[in-house]
Specification:
about 210 residues; mainly beta; 6-stranded antiparallel beta sheet; binds 6-O-phosphono-alpha-D-glucopyranose; binds fe (ii) ion; isomerase; RmlC-like_jellyroll; glucose-6-phosphate isomerase; RmlC_Cupin_sf
Length: about 210
Amino acid sequence: MAVPPTSHRIDPATGVLSSPTGRYEKRLAELAGIYADADAFAAALAERGDSIVYAVHEVRPAAARGDLIFGTTFMEPGRIGDEFYVTRGHIHARANRPETYYGEAGEGLMLMESPEGETSILEVRPRVMVYVPPLWIHRSVNTGSAPLVMSFCYPADAGQDYGLIARSGGMATRILADGTGWKAVPNADYRPRSAAEIDAILATQD
Ligand SMILES: O=P(O)(O)OC[C@H]1O[C@H](O)[C@H](O)[C@@H](O)[C@@H]1O
Ligand SMILES: [Fe+2]
């Protein structure tokens, strides 16, 4: 039996999506080890460990290969020290699966990194569509003082792999506050991937 067509209303201010099949929240306490400033993270944890950093509303019509997953990401504004709030970030478990993000509200960045360690940073704004190509690690950053809300769409069989970033000590680039704006700085903990690990990612097929 075919899956029935559906439509879903997005509230750009909250990211609330009508008739989702799932939603989850990430609280600060679940995001240990992501930020550079450990003392600032400990202080923020003591003060607001229960607070939500981001929430995802999603629709997964079916898990079938060739289907889509789509929904919204709502990110609170905030910083740990000088570093803006980010999502955990991932490469797709099937690394050659792409994704699109569309700005609904707020100001932010899509921070992307190739397997070889090249960084690409694209601004996300309302009515801006960002394309994350196959094989690129991606993480969203809220650089504004208001919530960043984006809608997204990616293949249903993509999956998320968080281990690749963890093994490298994070992504190569961090996004810090700079006056009223932002700046990209090298992550001092970053360890470039080995040729073997890069080759294994690039070999992803199907
Ligand atoms: O999974 P994270 O890196 O924490 O990012 C949170 C979420 O961001 C977006 O909504 C993506 O489309 C999701 O696939 C992802 O899970
Ligand atoms: Fe993704």
